[in-house]
Automatic annotation (TrEMBL):
Pfam families: OsmC. It comes from Saccharopolyspora erythraea (strain ATCC 11635 / DSM 40517 / JCM 4748 / NBRC 13426 / NCIMB 8594 / NRRL 2338). Residues 1-21 are annotated as: Disordered. It comes from the Bacteria. This is Osmotically inducible protein C, OsmC.
């Protein structure tokens, strides 16, 4: 079993406070976070939603690559973006949806087999599974 760690140090209240999230497992760095970076403009800071978008787009790309390769149609390239929507819901704030957009070069795949692999990757990617209950849309196309 593999484990990954990140730690956030936060100072102050929600609206005017700030923190830093350290990606400890990879030593990839420390990134500043604020409420404004979540609900307003990033201004050089990240947010939990941006980190989810990064996790989802990379996980999805790897899952799709694995499915295509297993089907005998390995991809030349896959480009996936994940747009995580965050806003008011109910008594607070929530992730209100995720839109995955993927464009891939897969010379030996036809549109139907690619679409099937793209949908399956969305359903079984571990990050998608962790986000069960969140609406995840998919726009997938061959280049």
């Amino acid at each position: 079993m593999t484990e990954r760690n990140a730690t956030t140090q936060w100072t102050g209240d929600l609206k005017s406070g700030s923190g830093n999230v350290a990606l400890e497992s990879s030593a990839a760095g420390t990134f500043p976070v604020t409420w404004a970076s979540r609900a307003e403009a990033p201004e050089g800071r990240t947010s939990p939603e941006e980190l989810i978008a990064a996790a989802h787009s990379s996980c999805y790309s790897m899952q799709l690559s694995g499915l295509l390769t297993a089907a005998g149609t390995p991809p030349e390239s896959i480009s996936t973006s994940a747009e995580v929507s965050f806003g008011p819901r109910g008594d607070g704030f929530a992730i209100t949806g995720i839109a995955l957009t993927v464009r891939a070069r897969v010379p030996s795949a036809d549109a139907a087999s690619f679409d099937e692999a793209a949908r399956k990757a969305k359903d079984i990617c571990p990050v998608s599974a962790a986000l069960t209950g969140t609406t995840i849309s998919l726009d997938a196309a061959l280049e």
